[in-house]
Amino acid sequence: MSLKEVYINSTSSFFPNDPVSNDEMEDYLGYINNTPSRSKAIVLRNNGIKNRFYALDKNGNSTHTNAQMTALAVRKLFNNDPEKLKSIQLLSCGTSSPDQMMPSHAVMTHGWLPEMASSEVISPAGVCCAGMHAFKYAYLATKTGEVSQAVATGSERFSKSLVSANFEDEAQQLKALMDDPYIGFEKEFLRWMLSDGSAAFLISDKKNETGISLRVEWLEGFSYANELAPCMYMGCEKMKDGSLKSYLEYSPHEMIEKSVLSIKQDVKLLSKNIVPYGGVGLSAALNKHGVKSSEVDYFLPHMSSEFFRDKIYQQLIANDTPISYDKWFVNLPQVGNVGAASVYFMVDELFHSGKLKVGDKILLLVPESSRFSYMYGLLTVC
Known about the structure:
It is built from 14 helices and 15 strands. By secondary structure, the chain is of the alpha+beta class. The chain has two domains: 7-212, Thiolase/Chalcone synthase (Peroxisomal Thiolase, Chain A, domain 1); 216-225 and 267-381, Thiolase/Chalcone synthase (Peroxisomal Thiolase, Chain A, domain 1, 3-Layer(aba) Sandwich). α3 packs across α5 (105-111). The chain starts with 6 loop residues before the first strand and ends with a strand.
């Protein structure tokens, strides 16, 4: 079997509503126990995010579902042309925030695209790496000749899980116990980090006849869950021994009281491990494919926070894979941390920037702190 070359021939992004500034965040997410957050200013000062997007209005009402946003990004790839939408042979959709546990995110997205033909759909699970896993499935299916054209997406709708109503019972419980109305930092931390949106890649075994394409050289992934404990989690609580207690083990009352369905982050575990292990994986990926960091023209690292920028830079130097800041391309301050969609947004902005020239090499790095897994990729402009 001969393997095909694989190209990204088009990219698109969809953001719900107008950008939300730092000062407006609690207008949308609300105040827990009617009290301004003590952690918000600290988190925002470190993460460097200036704007983000919410699929909410100021009354906390949803304006879009995750599947709707994803379908809108797919439509944008084809200028909403029904005939072109019929050409999709595979729809691969990655997210960590599906609208429901079942049916899957990809089939719900397919449901918002009735112009599409019946085709294969797949919904990789995970957190930030889910978008890259969707990309890799589409890449492999195209490379092996299973399909000649596929669409891969990354999307998130975090905002609805961040509204204050989800934490009120827990805040009241804490206030009664210790006269402290504030929920734990591991839960509130992510309220000031996350953003909503969707993005898509059109993947083909033939490059564009006019304009640029991005040839996918390789995509690599590594998990270090065999060595490290869970760090970011949802639908469970972390026990003192580091194990996770599933939402299935809680009564409905306990789930609300403890806000079990909120997203949590073990910040100490994150800070200690996310950058060093990401450096190990990057070195392994580059070595496997015989690529030197000096050959990279654009470096697109997904960062949850600007706090990690210098740490990543120094780790690259320590690992003998240095990449100077003039090669970095990051849009975190403008769009926020959109999890599985973040790397798509960076590629989309760069693809349409007019900066790329034939031969440029683009290195992707996507860390996932949930239990420390990483995805990497190399694209060449052609």
